[in-house]
Amino acid sequence: AAKDLGKNRFMVFENRMHEQLLTRLDQENRLREAVHRGELRLHLQPVFAVQEGRVVGAEALVRWQDPFRGLQQPGSFIPLAEETGMIIEIDRWILLEACRTLRHWQVESPWTAPAWVSVNLSAAHLDLPDLTDHVAYALATTGLSPQCLVLELTETVMMRDVAVTSARLQELRELGVRIAIDDFGTGYSSLGYLRDIPVDVLKLDRSFITGLVGNGRQQELVSAIVQLGHTLGLRVVAEGVEDADELNLLTVMGCKFVQGYHLGRPEPAHQLYERLTTPALHS
Ligand code: C2E
Ligand code: MG
Ligand code: MG
Ligand code: MG
């Protein structure tokens, strides 16, 4: 009897595994088709300059309009895309779309166009020898000037192979684009890479901003990081600013760039464009 029970359990387990595998394969296939079917969407989140009091940049964030499950946030498909290598194609699509959108905006409404758009790149790109060529291609076909493009890489990416990473990033910087360290402070990494790896922008992770109000120790820490960034000649952008109190604290600390729900949520690119080019919709 014990043996039968074990066998039944095994079959239940096997069926479940089978089901999960099919779901995964199904999702993988649909994600693979998503790019070609035009199901990816470019959302933009504004980056705000504290002193000027206006939007000066925008971050490109991918969404997937899945015909079965509706609009998907990156958390639900980026991990699979990274595992399968599909992330390369997705990031390339976003890169091109982001460059095209900002260029169009500059031509149509130069006074309201953000000065830059930033695009997230997954770690896998750094293993591709044609990364710089591809970025150059995106700039050339859209006509966007390299100074208007920022590439965001997470801190953990920087830590991989310092020699390879810094060589690749240096190539990109010679093209004229800027490099940002995304989610700064979450990678449990040594600060030593800031010495060896050429970067221009430091994006302070949202976890440092959450709970900032009323936590003196955290405020000292954030203030010190902002100083560190400025001392190294970097732009510092605080991520995840959700209310006026956080914004005020960051302003006092001398942080010049902020991004977060308080300043604007990610929204379809054309929606942000329309919002910023139509003064009547501001209030
Ligand atoms: P990230 O690059 O750090 O982007 C910031 C994330 O924080 C976005 O989530 C944004 O919606 C969210 N966020 C912004 N302000 C606030 C706030 O005030 N409060 C809170 N709670 N959240 C805020 P999203 O769009 O879900 O993207 C998550 C992550 O997925 C991104 O983190 C990035 O690592 C990745 N990702 C997004 N788009 C792409 C892409 O095109 N390519 C790659 N490789 N990764 C991407
Ligand atoms: Mg980012
Ligand atoms: Mg981030
Ligand atoms: Mg992130």
UniProtKB/TrEMBL annotation:
UniProt GO cellular component terms: membrane
Superkingdom per UniProt: Bacteria
Residue ranges constituting the EAL domain according to the UniProt record: 24-280
Alphabetical GO biological process terms: regulation of DNA-templated transcription; signal transduction
Keywords, alphabetical: Membrane, Transmembrane, Transmembrane helix
Protein name (Swiss-Prot/TrEMBL): Diguanylate cyclase (GGDEF)-like protein/PAS domain S-box-containing protein
Interval of the full protein contained in this chain: 521 to 803 of 803
